[in-house]
Design brief:
Strands 1-3-4-2-5 form a 5-stranded antiparallel sheet. Helix content is about 40%, strand content about 15%. Strand 3 and strand 4 form a beta hairpin. It is elongated. It is an alpha+beta fold and about 450 residues long.
């Protein structure tokens, strides 16, 4: 009786197990269902908790070792590399981040080929999706190579010039177009020693001396975009004349074309050469007055209010310089000292024993010269007696004599006489002297004997 009851209990347990297996076999096969059921019986809650924690740790390590998230969210270099990059530049590419991150090495190579200088290397600092759709912002840096050695100042200056040319679009940043496409214009974010940009303007043979400067809460990029308007408003505010032009250059002390403020350095040049001191004084007064009252003529809505205006020491010195006194009239200046400018030398007098008579003596400064200027002769003076001048034309192989204000010494007169005798062209402009009559008579005698001498 007891044996039958035990068999019946075992049979009921088998039937319950079969029912459970049959209910689970709706999703799995019978063998799999049986295996899962046995595993579920062996595991308890503690084992299940350990299993979940192990899976979480595995997933965390997997994503840390293989950064799949960088392909979609962007790329960032190590902080030590960013701090070592003293020169930083950014531009945009019309490519998704996922296509750019695998080609970072190629991007660094292309950039170095365009702007690289000896002793440096290029490193991409970050790649992120830009605010504009389908554009990616790339930031790269120029580091010294090796890192602990600073970049040579000469090569740093070359690098600065290259970046400014690319910023002004005077040259291009060429990348592998099949991978990166065509980059946008660059923006310089940081450059040691600052940068000075000269926007495109009228050609100047030389860089004029800066006369004044002032600050604006704008970036270099803003000034370049509105440069024509800035220059025209400044010319109007300074009351420049039609033959005067304005030279402007823009500087940022931090070496950024993207961040304010900027210092506008300006100079005024004239088509006729240098500006006279009186004109410089007028400009200094105009700058000092309009800077406070009229914002130098600049539109507040575009450029804001000017800050920290200052004059150069050269221009500031004209403010305290005395005004030049008006020049005296030459008709009333009877007691002026003789001019130091050379005057034409008097023609040689053949009647004089020595060619070139000495000049009339002048007793000293302030004395009236006995030589009357040709522009204002004395009305009562008798006209001088005509002198026997000899018009002289030098042959081509003789160099012209220098023009002295008063005669010359005996050596020069002797040289002049020798040249005069060797000349081939003589013409008399007045009545001949006794010596000339003797020469003519002697020449006539020779000619007569040549023609009538008996053969």
């Amino acid at each position: 009786m007891g044996k039958f009851a035990d068999e019946q209990h075992v049979h009921q347990q088998q039937q319950i197990e079969e029912n459970r297996v049959w209910s689970s076999s709706r999703f799995f096969c019978q063998r799999c269902s049986t295996g899962l059921y046995r595993i579920a019986e062996e595991f308890n809650f503690k084992c299940l908790l350990v299993l979940i924690l192990s899976l979480s740790l595995f997933v965390f390590v997997l994503f840390s070792v293989f950064p799949f998230h960088a392909i979609t969210s962007g790329f960032d270099a190590k902080e030590s590399i960013k701090l070592s990059a003293t020169v930083q530049v950014c531009f945009r590419l019309q490519k998704p981040v996922s296509l750019l991150v695998p080609h970072i090495g190629r991007l660094e190579y292309d950039i170095y080929e365009e702007i690289g200088v000896p002793g440096t290397k290029v490193a991409v600092l970050s790649i992120h999706q830009s605010d504009a759709s389908n554009w990616t912002e790339v930031v790269f840096g120029v580091l010294s190579d090796p890192v602990h050695v600073p970049i040579n100042q000469v090569w740093l200056s070359v690098l600065r010039s290259s970046l400014i040319e690319i910023f002004l679009e005077q040259s291009n940043l060429t990348l592998t177009e099949s991978i990166f496409g065509v980059p946008s214009p660059i923006q310089i974010l940081e450059f040691p020693g600052g940068i000075t940009v000269i926007p495109v303007q009228s050609a100047f043979i030389w860089i004029p001396q800066i006369l004044f400067n002032f600050s604006l809460l704008n970036s270099i990029s803003d000034i370049v975009v509105n440069f024509v308007e800035l220059k025209e408003q400044l010319k109007h505010g300074l009351h420049l004349r039609s033959y005067e032009d304005l030279y402007v250059q823009v500087r940022n002390e931090w070496g950024s074309t993207k961040d304010p403020p900027v210092t506008i350095q300006a100079s005024v040049v004239s088509a006729f050469g240098i500006l006279m001191p009186q004109r410089l004084k007028q400009l200094a007064e105009t700058v000092s007055y309009t800077a406070i009252s009229k914002n130098l003529g600049l539109d507040h809505s575009v450029f804001g209010k000017i800050k920290e205006i200052s004059l150069s020491s050269y221009l500031e010195g004209t403010l305290h310089a005395p005004s030049p006194s008006p020049a005296p009239s030459p008709e009333l200046d009877y007691y002026a000292e003789p001019s130091a400018s050379p005057s034409p030398a008097p023609s040689p007098c053949l009647d004089c024993p020595v060619l070139g008579s000495p000049p009339p003596s002048i007793s000293g400064p302030g004395c009236v010269s006995t030589v009357t200027p040709s522009s204002s002769p004395a009305p009562e003076a008798d006209p001088p007696a005509p002198l026997n001048f000899l018009t002289y034309t030098a042959p081509p192989y003789l160099s012209p004599l220098p023009l002295d204000s008063y005669g010359s010494n005996l050596d020069r007169d002797s040289e002049f006489a020798s040249r005069l005798i060797s000349s081939s062209t003589f013409s008399f402009v007045t009545s001949p002297s006794r010596g000339q009559i003797w020469l003519i008579s002697f020449a006539a005698f020779i000619i007569f004997n040549l023609f009538y001498w008996p053969h």
